[in-house]
Amino acid sequence: MIIERLKEIVTEKMQNLPVVYHQRGDIHSFTSVISERKTLFSRQKLIFTASYMLDIEAGEVTYNETLEEQRTGLGAGQDGNDTSGLTLKKWKTSSGPGGLEGLIDDQSALLKKKYTFGFDYREIRREVKQAVESNGYKYRYQIWGKLK
């Protein structure tokens, strides 16, 4: 079945990373911390999520991905104006018209200074698309927002 094949692809491509699988109705999601920085009083995580939804009636699989930075601890909320102490700040980038990489490229200098990772999200997207189409389904790459 296509759902099992997509699970195999995503977990195989993220094999060196801890992957958490979630299923909520028809939506299947894989979340992984792809890089993490810890200091004495704070923690920063870069989190990748790949989600897909199978619509059997339409014969279509919708795919979505997000990249999210989470910061906790002292200085997490400081963006120049905030001087509060212990806070939580969350930054999120969703897929853009050119795919997720278009948005990440705009922020690559910032991300590469802060995090080191060799993870290629484009490869996952490419293989998911190939598996979906080879099983006779239409592949739809959702640009913005959640699947449902």
* Total strand segments: 6
Helix content: 25-40%
How far apart are the termini? 22 Å
Q: Strand pairing plus helix content: what structural class?
A: alpha+beta
Overall morphology? elongated
What portion of residues belong to β-strands?
A: 35-45%
Q: Give the H and E element order.
A: HEEEEEHHE
Largest sheet: 6 strands, mixed
| Number of helical segments with 4 or more residues | 3
**What is the arithmetic mean of pLDDT?**
76
Rg is: 17 Å
Q: Point out poorly predicted stretches.
A: 80-89, 102-109
Describe this structure in words.
28% of the residues lie in helices and 41% in strands. The chain is α+β, with helices and mostly antiparallel strands. Strands 1, 2, 3, 4, 5 and 6 form a six-stranded mixed beta sheet that branches. About 12% of the residues have low confidence. Helix 1 runs antiparallel to helix 3. The protein is elongated, with a radius of gyration of 17 Å.
Structure described in brief:
This protein has 148 residues and is of the alpha+beta class. Helix content is 28%, strand content 41%. The chain contains 3 helices and 6 strands, in the order αβββββααβ.
